[in-house]
Write a structure and sequence with these properties.
Layout (H helix, E strand, L loop, with lengths): L13 E5 L11 H9 L3 E4 L14 H13 L3 E6 L16 H5 L3 E4 L4 H9 L4 E3 L12 H11 L6 E4 L7 E11 H7 L12 E7 L3 H13 L8 E8 L12 H9 L6 E3 L12 E3 L2 E7 L2 E5 L1
Parallel strand pairs: 1-2, 1-3, 3-4, 4-5, 7-8, 8-9, 9-10
Antiparallel strand pairs: 5-11, 6-13, 7-12, 12-13
Helix pairs in contact: 7-8
Length: about 300
């Protein structure tokens, strides 16, 4: 069954900013509000913006109520998660998506928001893995913000990567799935786990020990989740850590040792993840991955 794409976001429509994970102030999203307003959008700040409960943007119940309110409000045509951190997966099991199903809208974010992206895909809806408001005008590059705007507008831009020595050439077609490796690992065995079979998987991660990367990929391999992939897109693996006794492989080399056990095309170095060049991609949309000696491209 094909996935459902929410209607393209148009000038004059309302977009809500919510914090499903780590706390954030209104001042930290002010530049994003100005940017979105400059696109002709009406920006609504959820009650989770400015709320705090230890490191979270309010208690689980407060964050869930805010997200539920935006999911149910048919006048809100997109929900953009303000930042990542940790906590989105804690909200999922008690959310009601019946109002959302009656009037689907774009949901956007990355990193910890991978949990919500995957949950929506399990329900049959496309969403956006892209730069978040906390990074607008700071760590985010202009191209990343432009790609988010294009994806919200229903016309995601092709995503390209330079040639890489670990690439495995070939062409793959399938729905795009993936996001943060740590979250994909965490979702295994839950109601939010996505079947990768016949799909193009993309991966990124931040601030992990190299042996953690190996452990998570080993689990995906041993649990059979990599066996039916159509293709693999490898994005940023940023600020990786190592032990006093080195692990002996980079993140890309760790991924390669598992990818070599299969026969799907693999493209490394895509601008997806925790870097300024974070390119927005649509989770659940039919895509084509072309990997050649001259470089790679992911397009729709």
């Amino acid at each position: 069954m094909s996935t459902i794409a929410p209607p393209p976001l148009r000038p004059g429509q309302r977009v809500a900013l919510v914090a499903t994970a780590r706390k954030i102030t209104a001042a930290e999203v002010d530049f994003a509000v100005q940017t979105l307003s400059g696109w002709g959008l009406e920006v609504v700040l959820g009650t989770s913006i400015g709320a705090a409960s230890h490191q979270f943007a309010g208690t689980d119940d407060e964050r869930r109520r805010d997200l539920q309110r935006q999911l149910d409000d048919s006048s809100v045509r997109a929900i953009i998660c303000a930042r990542g951190g940790y906590g989105t997966a804690r909200l999922l099991d008690e959310l009601d998506f019946s109002g959302f199903a009656a009037s689907p809208k774009w949901v956007a974010g990355f990193s910890d928001i991978t949990a919500l992206n995957c949950h929506l895909l399990r329900l049959g809806y496309q969403s956006i893995h892209g730069v978040m408001p906390v990074l607008f005008g700071q760590a985010a590059g202009e191209a990343a913000v432009a790609s988010l705007r294009a994806a919200l507008g229903g016309a995601p831009m092709p995503c390209e990567a330079l040639a890489h020595p670990l690439n495995r050439p070939g062409t793959a077609q399938g729905e795009l799935v993936g996001g943060n490796l740590s979250l994909l690992h965490t979702l295994t065995g839950t109601r939010s786990q996505v079947d990768f079979t016949g799909r193009i998987l993309f991966l990124e991660d931040l601030d992990e020990y190299l042996y953690h990367i190996d452990r998570m990929l080993l689990h995906l391999h041993r649990s059979g989740q990599l066996a039916g992939l159509a293709g693999l897109v490898v994005g940023h693996f940023s600020q990786m850590r190592d032990n006093l006794i080195p692990f002996g492989q980079s993140a890309y080399e760790i991924i390669d040792q598992y990818a070599q056990r299969y026969h799907f095309p693999v493209g490394y170095g895509f601008p997806i993840g925790h870097e300024p060049s974070n390119h927005a991609v649509v989770v659940g949309r039919q895509a084509t991955l072309d990997v050649a000696a001259t470089g790679s491209q992911l397009h729709w």
